[in-house]
């Protein structure tokens, strides 16, 4: 399933430069490691515990629900909260991609819609979706540790992209940078940003 989804994403949303490929590779490694840890190791432990008749009472929750002692109830809460973050993040990612794709046809700078609220709504959406899946819904030590590294890599990628945009659009892009936050919209615009993602 992961391979099929990855193929579809890379087929239609393929990175253009080697830096974009490097960032995409880190995200892909995050997703594969997350699902290997989420299904591979825990499922093996679960099956072995059942097979050998061992106590499996501690196998019914994730990291956060176990840490705060909420068990399956905490697991359900973190799952629902994580799914909300995933849907919101993916909504931002795909709507941002759609806006950029339409603007590329006419070689225009996109400064409306999501891009009026954030200069990089696609990356913001990616961060929110990965946070929802790898930190809230099903956290593992690897996914929690890798999450800030992914943010750092995409921050550096965004800075490089902005240099290209300044070279291409000049003062128009500099003014856009002054008036629009990089990733997280201003507090007054946050609800509008999330609403656009979920429409």
UniProtKB/TrEMBL annotation:
One GO BP annotation of this record? methylation
The name on file for this protein is Isoprenylcysteine carboxyl methyltransferase
UniProt GO molecular function: methyltransferase activity
Q: Which segments cross the bilayer?
A: 21-39, 76-94, 136-155
Q: How does it sit in the membrane?
A: Multi-pass membrane protein
User: Main localisation, per the record?
Assistant: membrane
Where in or outside the cell it occurs: the entry states:
Endomembrane system
Task: Supply one GO CC term from the record.
Answer: endomembrane system
**Matches recorded under Pfam families:** PEMT
PANTHER family attached to this UniProt entry: PROTEIN-S ISOPRENYLCYSTEINE O-METHYLTRANSFERASE, PROTEIN-S-ISOPRENYLCYSTEINE O-METHYLTRANSFERASE
Matches recorded under InterPro entries: Phopholipid_MeTrfase
Arranged from A to Z, the UniProt key words for this protein are:
Membrane, Methyltransferase, Transferase, Transmembrane, Transmembrane helix
Q: Which organism is it from?
A: Marinicella pacifica
């Amino acid at each position: 399933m992961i391979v099929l989804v990855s193929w579809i994403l890379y087929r239609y949303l393929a990175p253009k430069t080697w830096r974009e490929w490097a960032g995409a590779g880190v995200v892909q490694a995050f997703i594969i490691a997350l699902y290997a840890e989420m299904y591979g190791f825990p499922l093996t432990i679960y099956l072995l515990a059942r097979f050998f008749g061992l106590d499996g009472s501690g196998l019914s929750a994730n990291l956060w629900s176990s840490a705060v002692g909420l068990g399956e109830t905490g697991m359900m809460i973190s799952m629902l909260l994580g799914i909300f973050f995933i849907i919101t993040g993916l909504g931002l990612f795909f709507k941002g991609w759609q806006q950029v794709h339409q603007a590329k046809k006419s070689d225009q700078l996109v400064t409306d819609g999501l891009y009026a609220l954030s200069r990089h709504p696609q990356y913001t959406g990616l961060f929110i979706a990965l946070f929802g899946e790898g930190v809230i819904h099903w956290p593992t030590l690897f996914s929690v540790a890798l999450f800030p590294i992914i943010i750092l890599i995409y921050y550096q990628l965004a800075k490089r992209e902005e240099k290209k945009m300044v070279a291409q659009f000049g003062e128009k892009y500099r003014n856009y940078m002054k008036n629009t936050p990089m990733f997280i919209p201003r507090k007054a615009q946050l609800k509008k940003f999330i609403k656009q993602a979920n429409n």
